[in-house]
Amino acid sequence: MMIELTITEILAAFFEKIHVDTFFGIPGSNLSMIHEIGKRHCFKGILAKHELDAMYMAIGDSISRGKPSVCFASAGPGNTNTVTGMTTAYYENLPVILLAGQIDLRCYGRHALYEVTGEGKTVCQKDIFEPITGYMCTIDSNDEQELRNHLNKINKTLIRAVPKPVFLEIPQNVYEYKVKVDMHFFSFLKEKSPNNGVYVTDKLINAFLKLFDEKISILLVLGNGCRNIPSSELVELINLLQVPVATTLKAKDLMPHDHPYYVGCIGKTGLAKANKLLREKDNIVFIGSILHQFTIPNLTLKDKKVSCVDIDCSDIRRRFPEINYIEVDAVSLTKNIIKNHSHYKKCPLGIYKKRLQERNKSASLTADNSIGRFLKYLSSILAYDAIIFSENIHNCQNYLEIKPPQKLFFLSNYAPIGFAISAAIGAKITDNKKQIIAICGDGGFYMNCMELAVAKENNAAVKVLIINNGVLGPVYKHQMVQFGKSFCTSFQNIDFEYFAKSLGIQYANADKLTSEELNYLLLSDEVVLIDLVTT
């Protein structure tokens, strides 16, 4: 049976089927489809203060729910304002769609307002986004097969093992085009991620287990690619392998910080004890890590046996051709080993466990500053399933103690400043029951602080911890180390209490809070700005 639907109705049905119910952005005259979708199909629209922050909200929503999310922007400056956010989603492998407005097809090449078609001397907005998307397309006709193909490719890009953002451009007059479709139009949609052809075989499993024959000289490093492995299975795998395990910055929340085999985070801002092991061990196995600069800033791989286990090692192979590679899906590998290779244990668990416990105890990090002490205490009162978005990498990596299923997210691959608040708001809007916290410096805070008005308007009770020191901390430290003095890194802060009052949100000075008051604020149904003054 054939039915006739508008492209707006088809896209609304598509978004519903991929579990999108909230759109973040700023509408424009060439994006009238958003109005139609919102009114006809009961989707929720969140009006951001800036398109970049709308994209960060979509990123936060996607991270929190583990599902695709949508940001919308109008043609020209609206879309180009999202470029940093799209680049972040590309680097972080996030399934985010930019629903991009475009001028009327009949106005192409006539230098219409906001024309970004590439016709004549105009800029083509698709050329700008092409390098930072997994798939991009323009829906400019009512051809049923062409529309199906576009939506099929969009879906595959979003659900594949390594998802990427999508740029979906629709000219202004196309939304109401009518298309004849049958009842099975969306039969191509799949819920689960394809395996990308990398299957777990006995050969791959044996190759992986062989890496751990010499236990004393090995260090296992878990990266963000292990995020889809349940924490209980990761712990079971570590107990089975009986080796010390570290995590990269972005995988800090994947291992219980009190596990006897866990030695902490490695990398540029990691723990000294973990980085010492990284330097000393002759045999290092990375699972799900891209070997980012934060992970191995000063590590010489030449004199070590280094192995990388991931579903796609092509980029690492290009940068480090000397490394040993095992291309396999880490989730399937872990499940298979736990289920079929429990006999792999060769020595009493207690011997190595005791040695690691003693070393961890002697090398424990004490919080010797106000930020560290506050984060240590904050860790102890977090909700069971709290989600934290942080830009303050060094302090959170060293002092914040996360226990699964709690989650801690750094967007360190592209490392944008000013994303934490917007990402937290996006996550809270679509999952209001969870405790969502943003941790940022005062420099990053100014980049998107007005989005707290969006949080207030939508009853998204995020908690924002601002590190108030009047300086761009990482830049200042870098300049002092390299040049002995700083340039253009200090600034005069506003009165954050008055700022909070102007938005109608709660303010608290961290130094004056009792433990009971802090606990109350974290559990409250209000947007809260916590001001941690430090030097």
Overall description:
The chain starts with a strand and ends with a strand. The chain folds into 3 domains: 2-182, Rossmann fold (3-Layer(aba) Sandwich); 202-362, TPP-binding domain (Rossmann fold, 3-Layer(aba) Sandwich); 370-533, Rossmann fold, CATH 3.40.50.970. The strands form 4 sheets. It has a 6-stranded parallel beta sheet with strand order 3-2-4-5-7-6. It is an alpha/beta fold and 535 residues long. The protein is 38% helix and 18% strand. The protein is globular. Helix 14 (370-381) packs across helix 15.
Secondary-structure blueprint:
Elements: E1 2-6, H1 7-17, E2 22-26, H2 33-41, E3 44-47, H3 51-65, E4 69-73, H4 77-80, H5 83-92, E5 96-102, H6 125-129, E6 135-138, H7 144-159, E7 166-171, E8 178-182, H8 202-210, E9 218-222, H9 231-241, E10 245-247, E11 262-265, H10 272-280, E12 283-287, E13 305-310, H11 314-319, E14 324-327, H12 330-340, H13 349-362, H14 370-381, E15 387-390, H15 393-399, E16 407-409, H16 420-430, E17 436-441, H17 442-448, H18 452-457, E18 463-468, H19 473-483, H20 496-503, E19 506-509, H21 515-523, E20 528-533
Helix pairs in contact: 3-5, 3-16, 9-12, 14-15
Task: Please summarize what this structure is.
The protein is an alpha/beta fold and 535 residues long. The chain has 21 helices and 20 strands. It has a six-stranded parallel sheet with strand order 3-2-4-5-7-6. The chain has a six-stranded parallel sheet with strand order 11-10-9-12-13-14, with helices on both faces. The protein has a six-stranded parallel sheet with strand order 16-15-17-18-20-19.
